[in-house]
Structures are given as structure tokens and as C-alpha cells.
Design goal:
The protein is mainly α and about 230 residues long. It has two domains: about 55 residues, no CATH class; about 160 residues. The chain has nine helices and no strands. Helix 1 runs antiparallel to helix 2 and helix 4 packs parallel to helix 7. It is extended, with a radius of gyration of 24 Å.
Length: about 230
């Protein structure tokens, strides 16, 4: 939320010369997340140092079904692809895009002041294309990592999806297919236009359908528990 508000809040009322309150709260949120990770790691360290008892086996941890393994490995690959794309974008395009951004803004001003309306309009068009290139790269980078994390999380509760293994495989493949298709076709929108946008929307639809199907499976699992004799 803090990152989202940076553009709208700006430096109004900020005691700092370079960053505003939205940036301060965004950094604070990152610090809280970092702090929680430290405590979680400390808890895991304590767990592995604790003596082993005779605890009941955890069905979620023990699950080795095909759908769980596919979602876990596929999600990890998606996150890895997202990091590779982000590294490539930062190394190859980030600074050149920033330089080009300043050049086009300057060209718009100078050409308009000189009365060269055609050149000024061309600079405006080029600036729009540059912003589009930035947008699709950021969107693709964010979506592929988000879908990867989603797939990893879904892998952990597949035992609670009360569907046959055949259908769990179908929905796992559907989700991974849509998760890869959406960011890829988002990247291609500048070259393919609305056609790529439509294919990206189809990828998003596949993810939604797969999620809904798994939700139905979880709902059926609660019914299975209720049907057990003596269960609440």
C-alpha cells in the first residue's frame, strides 16, 4: 500500500528531503516482513534442535502426489523465470530506458517550443511506446512470480482437495499453463497488440477456473469430514 501511494502522496508533509511518508511506510512494511522472516527462521532452528517425539504424521507434509509435486516444482520454475527476467531487464534495459525517458521528455519540450509540431508529436508517440515497454515488463515480471508462489502454496494443501487424482492433475496443469501463458503474452502485447492481450486474458481465465475447481474440491473435503461417523 505504501508503494502504491508514493505517487499520490509525494513529499507533502515529509520531514525528509528525498522521500515522503508513503515511502517511509513502505520501507517500514519491508522491515516488518524482514523481521518476521528472522523470527520464523529462529522458530525453525528451535524445531530442528528439539528432541523428536511421537507426534502424529502430518498429511500435508507427507503428500507426494503427482499434482502436489507438479505444482511445487512448476511454481519454483515460474519464480525462477521471474527472477531471470527481472535480472535481464535490470541489466539490459533499466538504465537505457531511464535515459531514453529523459531524452524524449526534453525533445517534447524543445521541439514544441521551436514550433516543430511533427517532431514533438513523434516524441510523444515514442514516449508512449517506451512507457508501454516498461509496463509490460513490470507486469510480466510481477505476474510470473506471483503465480509461481501461488502454485507453491497450492501444492501444500492438495490432500484437502477432495477430487480424484486424475482431476487434480488436470487442474494443476491448467493452473501452470495459465500461469505461464499470461506473463508471456503480456510481454508480446507491444508486438502482437490485442491478439496477445486476448491470449493473456485466456491464460488468466485458466488460472481462475483451476482455482475455482480446487476450491470446490476443498468444499467437498469438508463434506467428507462431516460425513464421518461421530464427527462434528
Amino acid at each position: 500500500m505504501g508503494v502504491f501511494l508514493i505517487h499520490y502522496v509525494g513529499l507533502v508533509g515529509s520531514p525528509f528531503a528525498a522521500i515522503g511518508w508513503a515511502s517511509v511506510f513502505a520501507d517500514f512494511g519491508g522491515f516488518v516482513a524482514w523481521l518476521v522472516c528472522i523470527f520464523e527462521l529462529a522458530g525453525m532452528w528451535k524445531y530442528f534442535r528439539a528432541p523428536r517425539g511421537t507426534a502424529a504424521p502430518d498429511e500435508l507434509v507427507r503428500d507426494r502426489s503427482w499434482s502436489s509435486r507438479a505444482l511445487l516444482s512448476g511454481g519454483t520454475v515460474l519464480v525462477f523465470i521471474g527472477f531471470l527476467h527481472g535480472s535481464y531487464y535490470a541489466g539490459m534495459h533499466l538504465f537505457s530506458y531511464e535515459t531514453r525517458d529523459s531524452e524524449l521528455l526534453s525533445a517534447m519540450t524543445t521541439k514544441a517550443a521551436a514550433g516543430d509540431s511533427a517532431a514533438a508529436l513523434q516524441a510523444v508517440a515514442d514516449y508512449g511506446q517506451l512507457q508501454g515497454a516498461k509496463a509490460v515488463n513490470v507486469a510480466a515480471h510481477a505476474h510470473v512470480i506471483e503465480f509461481g508462489i501461488l502454485a507453491i502454496l497450492l501444492a501444500f494443501f492438495q490432500p484437502y482437495v477432495f477430487l480424484s487424482e486424475k482431476w487434480r492433475r488436470i487442474w494443476a496443469v491448467t493452473l501452470l499453463t495459465g500461469s505461464l501463458a499470461l506473463p508471456v503474452f503480456v510481454l508480446l502485447e507491444l508486438q502482437w497488440g490485442l491478439f496477445a492481450g486476448g491470449l493473456a486474458d485466456i491464460g488468466g481465465l485458466l488460472v481462475i477456473v483451476a482455482l475455482f475447481a480446487m476450491l470446490v474440491g476443498v468444499w467437498r473435503y469438508t463434506g467428507k469430514l462431516d460425513s464421518v461417523a461421530g464427527a462434528a
